């Protein structure tokens, strides 16, 4: 694997008395797409919260580009260069598509560059461009997912976190979203994505980890994981964490 841009080392996380992560260690190489796979209650979404500073681990470390970031507030994590496409999109439904996109650049002062990035997003996401003046809440699920991705990219992240990017989408939009994730990566953005659909995620990923009840049970090159007969059992097993 290439040099790590993101590294979690022996992370232990709790919700009250319930332990969610058990010495969780993983890394995301610079310029790579890495998938974190697992069934419901495996601890995937909690991993994203840890990285974004929404939840503090009880022990262990989170490093981004060589700096330890566990304990940082979320706004500092975002400004350091980590973008987020949350589960269920969480766009601002009463705001226009344009306003949603500009919210992604709220921490930037380089207005000219923001305008250039807006035009770049409209080129990369033509369906978003077609809806630019509409309220975001009237967009389809697939269009909202594209908007959420474009909004995250407006912050010029070096790493983008994607939590269940294909959830609830029609097959047509699933394929398009996966194509866009691969294109974003080709343009230089590292991607760490949480996904339940192992087959889909491993089609575009370089590496993958399988999480089961807070523990990594399989890891390796995506192509090897796709052919591993253990992945279905490991991916579907477990029932404890959130």
Tell me briefly what this model is:
The chain has 242 residues and is α/β, with parallel strands linked by helices.
**CATH topology (level 3) name of the largest domain:** Rossmann fold
* Average pLDDT metric: 88
Query: Based on DSSP secondary structure assignment, what is the total number of beta strands?
Result: 10
Largest sheet: 6 strands, mixed
In the CATH hierarchy, the architecture of the largest domain is 3-Layer(aba) Sandwich
Poorly predicted ranges: 236-242
What class do helices, strands and sheet pairing give?
Answer: alpha/beta
Distance between the termini: 29 Å
Secondary-structure element series: EEEHEEHEHHHHEHEHEEHH
Over the alpha carbons, how many angstroms does the gyration radius reach? 17 Å
Number of folding domains? Answer: 2
Describe the structure.
The chain has 242 residues and is of the alpha/beta class. It has two domains: 1-81 and 162-242, 3-Layer(aba) Sandwich (Rossmann fold), CATH 3.40.50; 92-156, no CATH class. Helix content is 37%, strand content 27%. It has a six-stranded mixed β-sheet, sandwiched between helices. A four-stranded antiparallel β-sheet has the order 2-1-4-5, with helices on one face. Strand 9 and strand 10 form a beta hairpin. Helix 3 (97-103) packs parallel to helix 6 and helix 6 (141-153) packs parallel to helix 7. The longest helix has 16 residues, at 171-186. It is globular and about 45 Å long. 43% of the residues are buried. Mean pLDDT is 88; it is low at 236-242.
């Amino acid at each position: 694997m290439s040099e790590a841009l993101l590294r979690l080392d022996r992370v232990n996380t709790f919700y009250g008395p319930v332990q969610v992560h058990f010495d969780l260690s993983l890394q995301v190489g610079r310029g790579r797409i890495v998938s974190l796979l697992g069934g419901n209650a495996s601890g995937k979404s909690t991993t994203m919260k840890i990285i974004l500073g929404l939840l503090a681990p009880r022990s262990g470390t989170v490093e981004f580009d060589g700096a330890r970031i566990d304990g940082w507030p979320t706004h500092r994590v975002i400004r350091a260069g980590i973008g987020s496409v949350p589960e269920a999109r969480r766009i601002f439904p009463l705001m226009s598509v344009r306003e949603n996109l500009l919210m992604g650049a709220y921490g930037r002062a380089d207005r000219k560059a923001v305008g250039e990035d807006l035009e770049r997003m409209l080129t990369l996401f033509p369906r978003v461009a077609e809806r630019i003046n509409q309220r975001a809440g009237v967009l389809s699920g697939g269009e909202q997912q594209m908007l959420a991705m474009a909004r995250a990219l407006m912050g010029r992240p070096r790493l983008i976190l994607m939590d269940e990017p294909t959830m609830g989408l029609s097959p047509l939009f699933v394929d398009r979203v996966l194509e866009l994730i691969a294109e974003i990566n080709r343009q230089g953005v590292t991607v760490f994505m949480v996904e339940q659909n192992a087959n889909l995620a491993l089609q575009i990923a370089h590496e993958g980890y399988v999480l089961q009840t807070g523990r990594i049970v399989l890891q390796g090159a995506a192509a090897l994981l796709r052919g591993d007969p253990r992945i279905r059992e490991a991916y579907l097993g477990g029932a404890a964490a959130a």
